[in-house]
Every structure is written in structure tokens, then in C-alpha cells.
Amino acid sequence: MKTACIILAGGRSSRMGTHKALLKVHNKSLLDIAAEKFSTIGSDIFISSRNDIPLNTKLPIIYDQYENQGPLNGIIRMMQEIDAQQYCVLAVDLPNIPENFFTDLLQHFRDDADAIVPYNKSFAQPLAAVYRSNCLPVFQQQFKNGFKAIQKTFHDLCIQKYTMEANDDIFLNINSMADYQNYLKNYAKANG
């Protein structure tokens, strides 16, 4: 099954004050770190972003159709532009995702499911998940109806819950400068 890997890097980063994808950890940007998370899959990697963000990358960038409309908008655009049967999706601000994470998700992905979404302590992690191409019409309808959160589409899809026994640290989200400083202090050494 043809798989495409998508890094969501088009957020406003309003709480951060600077674009998250450009933040550095051990001389690597969060964008480069996110790309490394797909290294075990062997599929093409694409970036979903706004056109006003100066991303210095050789990876192909597909710009959001509508700015500041959330990650669902970015996923829809990527699914429209990239020919694949399934899409591994990762937000750029989740640097603690293990490198074998998406390989594990793909190995456990049931044929009858539309998406496999990790759950940690009953919380869905939809920005580190795999979606099949048949999710696109549902995503488009929900977006057209004004819903920007991916979870709002779950009631219309067959979602395979992938229960994670791991700690919350793998889903550590860097949203603010304080989060970034905390990450550098407490996690970056272990991941460098």
C-alpha cells in the first residue's frame, strides 16, 4: 500500500512567538527531527505549511489552501495533492515520538479501519496517526461544516484505537517558549 509521510508545519505558533519548525535542538530544526521520525518507513516525506514561513529544506512543501484554519485543513490539502493510499501524519512540535513509532502503527493497522490513532491515558493523539485515503471526503465535509478539529470526524470513520502504554513524554508538545526551554533542559540530552 502506497504510503506518504506528512509533517504538519503550518501553524501560527502564536504562543511561541516564532515558528516552531525552525527551533533548533542540537543544531537540528524541529522540522529535521520530525523528518527523521519517518526514516524507518521508506516513503516520501512532504511538508504541509503556510507560504510565509521560510523553511530551509529539500523536502517538498505543499502550502495550505486556507491560512490559519488548523491541521485538518493541512491534512485535506496534502491528501488532495499526494497520491497515496495512506498518510502518516506528524505535527512538527512532537519531538519525542520514537523513530519506530510509525512502523509500529503501520504494522498494527487493521484492513477494516479508516485510521489508526494512538491513545495515551484515554486521550487521542490525532496529529501522530495514520489515515487512509478514504478519510478525505469525511474530512472535507467536516471542514466545510466549520469543524477544524480532526476528532470531530471520528464519529463518521472507523477509528482503530492504538493504546499506548508509554508515558506521556512521547507526546510532549512544544507550544510555547517555556515548553521549548523545558524540552531543552529535560529531554534534549536524551534525544540528541
Protein structure class = alpha/beta
Number of strands: 10
Strand residue content: 15-25%
Morphology: globular
* Fraction of helical residues: 10-25%
Poorly predicted sequence stretches spanning 5 or more consecutive residues: none
Task: Characterise the protein shown here.
α2 crosses α4 (136-144). The protein is globular. It has helices spanning 30-36, 71-81, 101-108, 136-144, 177-186; strands spanning 3-8, 24-25, 28-29, 44-49, 61-63, 86-91, 115-120, 123-124, 128-132, 159-163. A hairpin with a 2-residue loop joins β2 and β3. With 192 residues, it is of the alpha/beta class. The model has no long low-confidence stretch (mean pLDDT 87).
Write a brief caption for the model.
With 192 residues, the protein is of the alpha/beta class. The chain has helices spanning 30-36, 71-81, 101-108, 136-144, 177-186, and strands at 3-8, 24-25, 28-29, 44-49, 61-63, 86-91, 115-120, 123-124, 128-132, 159-163.
Secondary-structure blueprint:
Layout: E1 3-8, E2 24-25, E3 28-29, H1 30-36, E4 44-49, E5 61-63, H2 71-81, E6 86-91, H3 101-108, E7 115-120, E8 123-124, E9 128-132, H4 136-144, E10 159-163, H5 177-186
Helix pairs in contact: 2-4
Name some characteristics of this structure:
192 residues; single chain; eight-stranded mixed beta sheet; 23% helix; 22% strand; alpha/beta; two-stranded antiparallel sheet
